[in-house]
Amino acid sequence: MAKRVAIIASNGGMFDAYKVFNIATAAAATDAEVGIFFTFEGLNLIHKDAHAQLPMPVGKEHFAQGFQKANVPGIPELVAMASEMGVKMIACQMTMDVMGLEKEHFIEGIEVGGAVTFLDFAYDADVTLTF
Q1: What's the pTM value of the predicted model, to 2 decimals?
Q2: HEC string of 110-123?
Q3: How far is CA 65 from its chain centroid?
Q4: If you compute the radius of gyration of the chain from its CA atoms, what whole number of angstroms results?
Q5: With contact defined as beta carbons under 8 Å apart, do 13 and 67 qualify?
Q6: Do 21 and 38 meet the contact criterion of CB atoms below 8 Å apart?
Q7: Average pLDDT, whole number, for the chain?
Q8: Are 67 and 75 in contact (CB under 8 A)?
Q9: The sheet that has 33-38: what strands, in order across it?
Q10: What is the DSSP-derived secondary structure letter of residue 126?
Q11: Does the pLDDT of residue 12 top 90, yes or no?
């Protein structure tokens, strides 16, 4: 039986995106079933516009060159990889309602659901992470 990895993405910065999608794609590459619940600022990571232009944190500009030298894919590429690998991406319905966002604001292939939707996935998780 495959391992199951449940991730909560509640922060929406560039480094948060790398953490979430690096773990998600690595787990998916080992044939784990992966589900990510995006809530609050974490919704930036799957927002059609925002995920492609996450700013480098102030004072960390030197990382841009390091990412390039190490051939680290950009966030849009990592999001696409996760999607292609079957990572389940759930946008928090409550947060979307509070922020006035609709499913159309997000990348293709996401699911919209509440905490219970994520919990149904997470109850059987072997690993649960929060970023």
Answers
A1: 0.95
A2: CEEECHHHHHHHHC
A3: 23
A4: 14
A5: no
A6: no
A7: 96
A8: no
A9: 111-113, 88-92, 33-38, 4-9, 127-130
A10: S
A11: yes
d(CA 87, CA 79): 9
Q: CA dist 120 to 18, 62, 114, 115, Å?
A: 25, 41, 10, 9
Q: 109-127 burial string, b = 16+ CB within 10 Å, else e?
A: ebeebeeebbeebbeebee
- C-beta atoms surrounding 25 within 10 Å: 18
Q: State the Cα–Cα distance between residues 38 and 96, nearest whole angstrom.
A: 10
CB of 23 within 8 A of CB of 29?
A: no
pLDDT digits (tens, 9 = 90+) for 53-91: 999 999 998 998 999 999 999 999 999 999 999 999 999
Mean pLDDT for the stretch of residues 9-17: 96
Mean per-residue pLDDT for 38-57?
95
Amino acid at 68: Q
Burial of 12 (0-12, 13-18, 19+ CB in 10 A): buried
